[in-house]
């Protein structure tokens, strides 16, 4: 049996947003507005535009608010809601949701938006024969990074190097989730997903897709303001093309 052309999108909407203060107490991160839409709406519009209409939403903190918001959207998508328990870490939420997809799923975090070509990401994953493919983006360190040995002798000095970091998007095979030990699945917060990726990395089964385009994410009130400015600037420039 062939894999579906478009696998489901799995949106992680369970985070508490502890660093958002009162904003996080009133609303889950995925329902915070950037420009004139919630971050969740921005994401859904982007996925639907590319033909991905099967959406799995992992609920957690204030999950009922997420569900009500999605039910109120007039969008041509098919939604499945998954509940792994409010204290569950990222990997456990994904593991609980695996019953809602067949072969693979495209994972996205609920507090990020990136203009990623999902078909291209899926092609990279499938051609590479990976169990999971993570999306990375460049970030320039504002510091000179120094490495040294136990005796204090410097072995390298990199002035403001460009590093690559994981931005919360990935393609994950269902078969990969079946090999993870339960103790890893039960790890809190993001520890499980990092350990999961390290296991696949040790097997040579973790691929990467490079994204140098537009993206926003936020964890604090100040970052929300920056994200909104970037979103306004990006779409204003688009409209002028």
The portion of residues assigned to helices is: 25-40%
The H/E string reads EHEEHEHEHEEHEEEEHHHEEH
Strand order of the largest sheet: 5-4-1-6-11-8-12
CATH class: Alpha Beta
According to DSSP, the number of beta strands is 13
Give the name of the CATH architecture.
Answer: Alpha-Beta Complex
Number of discrete helical segments: 9
Task: Please state the structural category.
Answer: alpha/beta
CATH H level: which superfamily?
Spore Coat Polysaccharide Biosynthesis Protein SpsA, Chain A
Query: What is the C-alpha radius of gyration, as a whole number of Å?
Result: 19 Å
Q: Please, how many domains?
A: 1
Mean pLDDT over the full residue set: 89
Describe the structure in your own words.
The chain is α/β, with parallel strands linked by helices and 241 residues long. It has one domain (9-136, 166-240): Spore Coat Polysaccharide Biosynthesis Protein SpsA, Chain A, CATH 3.90.550. The protein contains 9 helices and 13 strands. Strand 2 (33-34) and strand 3 form a beta hairpin. The chain starts with 8 loop residues before the first strand and ends with a helix. The model has no long low-confidence stretch (mean pLDDT 89).
Summarize the SSE layout with pairings.
Elements: E1 9-13, H1 22-26, E2 33-34, E3 37-38, H2 39-49, E4 54-59, H3 63-71, E5 78-83, H4 90-97, E6 104-109, E7 112-114, H5 118-128, E8 132-140, E9 144-148, E10 154-159, E11 162-173, H6 174-177, H7 182-185, H8 191-202, E12 206-210, E13 215-217, H9 221-240
Parallel strand pairs: 1-4, 1-6, 4-5, 8-12
Antiparallel strand pairs: 2-3, 6-11, 7-13, 8-11, 9-10
């Amino acid at each position: 049996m062939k894999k579906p052309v478009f696998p489901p999108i799995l949106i992680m909407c369970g985070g508490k947003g502890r660093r958002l203060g009162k904003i996080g107490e009133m609303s889950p991160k995925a329902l915070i507005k950037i420009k004139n839409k919630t971050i969740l709406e921005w994401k859904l519009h982007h996925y639907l535009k590319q033909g991905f209409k099967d959406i799995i939403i992992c609920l957690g903190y204030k999950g009922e608010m997420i569900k009500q918001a999605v039910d109120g959207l007039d969008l041509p998508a098919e939604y499945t809601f998954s509940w792994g328990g409010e204290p569950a870490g990222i990997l456990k939420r994904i593991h609980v949701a695996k019953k809602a997809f067949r072969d693979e799923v495209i994972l996205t975090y609920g507090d990020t938006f990136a203009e990623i070509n999902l078909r291209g990401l899926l092609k990279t994953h499938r051609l590479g024969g990976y169990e999971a493919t993570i999306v990375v983006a460049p970030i320039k360190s504002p510091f000179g990074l120094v490495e040294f040995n136990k005796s204090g002798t410097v072995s390298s000095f990199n002035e403001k190097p460009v590093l690559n970091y994981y931005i919360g998007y990935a393609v994950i095979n269902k078969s990969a989730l079946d090999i993870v030990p339960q103790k890893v699945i039960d790890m809190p917060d993001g520890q499980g997903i990092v350990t999961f990726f390290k296991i696949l990395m040790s097997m040579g089964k973790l691929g990467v897709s490079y994204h140098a385009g537009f993206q926003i994410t936020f964890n604090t009130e100040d970052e929300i303001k920056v994200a909104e400015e970037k979103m306004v600037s990006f779409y204003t420039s688009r409209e002028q093309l």
